[in-house]
Amino acid sequence: MKFLSAALRDERVRFLLVGGWNTLFGTAMFATLYLLLVGHLHYLAILVISHVLSSINNWLTYRRLVFVSRADRLAEFVRFNASSLTVLAFNFAGLWLLVDFCDWHPIASQILLVAATVVLSYLIHAGYSFRHRGKEVRNDK
Prior knowledge:
By secondary structure, this protein is mostly helical. The protein has 6 helices and no strands.
């Protein structure tokens, strides 16, 4: 138990655990929307929709469980989404390349790309999105 408790105090360990959940959630969101909407929407439009829905889940879990932030919620949410656009751009370009040029299935491509964004996501969110996480930010100034 001591090992588990010590491991959970490490932000990087919490990021990997919560990121595992977020990866599962985002991949399931994309796959579900793809299967439901493939006849109506292009797979890249489905990616954008699943990204928006997954980003809400991701922000909540990273804020509360990983970075334990007490910073201003709105400012942090804006920073988080700006950061997430970088990840979305990487994902968008990668999905397009894998599907249109390598002839991979969109769901398989998305699984590979989501796994590839773990380090990129941590660096962006730790260094930018949640950089003020330990500071109390007052909204009455």
